Automatic annotation (TrEMBL):
Domain of life: Bacteria
Source organism per UniProt: Enterocloster bolteae 90A9
UniProt domain Sugar fermentation stimulation protein C-terminal: residue ranges: 123-242
Name the record gives this protein: Sugar fermentation stimulation protein homolog
Gene3D superfamilies: 2.40.50.580, 3.40.1350.60
Annotated SfsA N-terminal OB domain residues: 12-79
Length: 255
């Protein structure tokens, strides 16, 4: 995924979870923070940040001309846009370097789905409701050998919390996240393949684990989901100030 009109700045303050004050050029601007999480370890006064400027803000009715989308944690650049993981995951499944077969299935050898066995994704859709859950992605999995097709759901979680090279989720308690995991378990019991994908919005990560210190109930739910047959995946991203691309698998640590 790509951003336009990127501007560098210096973080000043965050009066509430929706806005931040950032110095850019010779002035302080008000920005929309595209992440309602705490992000206390990231948004520190003096931190270098990246903004997306919206020149049509006044015409389109936006309250601010800027979105805060990225931050430097020392030398590590982190995309903190909570809307980016869903879009990046969708691009990851659909584009796959543009290699598709006649039915729209990804066939390229070494595609991101190769760790899942002999399957390729087809008919990828976003924001699909099933029961009392709305999943980020719905698609079909086609067996490369038998051509059999099975339905699947995927929930996508963006990860911005890092400590000593290990990524963690969540950075704040999330009952909504637990609800999504329970929905995936029910879908799997009904015959769907079910996945939760943790999109780690940075590079240089050696592992992913649930943040049991902050929300042990989410960690318990994630382990229960894995035991129930839900596939737990974590991938890092190639991140620049104006792009974020899902890249490589990261070891999931649940034990």
């Amino acid at each position: 995924m790509t951003y336009e009109h990127i501007v560098a700045g210096t973080f000043v303050s965050r009066p509430n979870r929706f806005i931040a004050h950032v110095e850019t050029g010779n002035r302080t601007v008000v920005c929309h923070v595209k992440n309602t999480g705490r992000c206390r370890e990231l948004l520190i006064p003096g931190a270098a940040v990246i903004l997306e400027f919206h020149p049509d803000a006044a015409v389109s009715g936006r309250k601010t001309e800027y979105d805060l989308i990225g931050v430097y944690k020392n030398d590590l650049f982190i995309n903190m846009d909570s809307q980016a993981p869903n879009k990046a995951a969708w691009e990851w499944l659909t584009s796959l370097d543009g290699s598709m077969d006649s039915c729209g299935c990804a066939e390229k050898a070494g595609s991101p789905f190769s760790p899942l066995g002999p399957y390729v994704p087809c008919d990828i859709r976003r924001e699909v409701t099933h029961g009392d859950s709305r999943f980020d992605l719905a698609f079909s999995l086609r067996d490369r050998d038998t051509k059999a097709v099975s339905p699947a759901f995927m929930e996508v979680k963006g990860v911005t919390l890092e400590e000593n090279g290990v990524a963690m989720f969540p950075d704040a308690p999330t009952e909504r996240g637990i609800k999504h995991l329970k929905g995936l378990i029910r879908a799997h019991e009904e015959g769907y393949e079910a996945y939760v994908l943790f999109v780690i919005q940075m590079k240089g990560i050696r592992g992913f684990t649930p943040n049991d210190m902050t929300h042990p109930a989410f960690g318990d739910a994630l382990r229960q989901a894995r035991e129930a047959g839900v596939h737990v995946l974590a991938y890092d991203c190639l991140v620049t100030p104006d792009t974020m691309i899902v890249d490589s698998p990261v070891k999931v640590i649940l034990d």
